[in-house]
Specification:
By secondary structure, the chain is α+β, with helices and mostly antiparallel strands. It has a 3-stranded antiparallel β-sheet, with no helix packed on it. The protein has a two-stranded antiparallel sheet with strand order 1-2.
Length: 147
């Protein structure tokens, strides 16, 4: 499948910082590259998940800030590089896990981009997810999805 992939290059960022210092101008440092890439289609993450073929995807303001201003720090707590930007998706269900109920093949869905303890199948859930605050989850790098 084709995708735009964001990758972080420490070498590239370091070189841009050196050039900026030597040339005494303060351009943005471009450690992030967005490139079209051919990726293997991922397998379904677990029997409790569905696979969705995206038919429409939006680029969020965090994605836009990272792309335009080359600021990886904005997304640092939420992503690991490389990743595919665009977390606001509408799609069609193409595969259903064995433990999923109430969803049909071909059904149109809106994808919730939040992958907290429940979605990552982390047990026990972190204190924030336990309190009903999954948007503050401490386990963005654990579980069936990983970093």
């Amino acid at each position: 499948m084709k995708a735009l992939v964001a990758s972080l290059s420490v070498k590239r960022e370091a070189w841009d910082r050196v050039k900026s210092t030597i040339l005494r101008h303060h351009n943005h440092v471009h450690g992030i590259a967005i490139e079209p890439t051919d990726l293997h289609e991922p397998a379904i993450a677990s029997p409790q998940w569905v696979k969705v073929r995206s038919i429409m995807s939006g680029i969020s303001d965090m994605d836009e800030g990272m792309i335009l201003y080359q600021n990886a720090a904005l997304l640092g707590p939420f992503v690991s590089f490389p990743f595919v930007p665009g977390n606001e998706n509408v799609g069609i269900v193409t595969e259903i896990g064995r433990q999923v109920e109430g969803v049909e093949l071909g059904q149109r869905v809106v994808v919730d981009p939040l992958l907290a303890c429940t979605q990552r199948q982390v047990a026990p859930p972190c204190p924030l997810c336990s309190r009903g605050e999954p948007h503050c989850c401490r386990n963005f790098d654990k579980g069936v999805v990983g970093p």
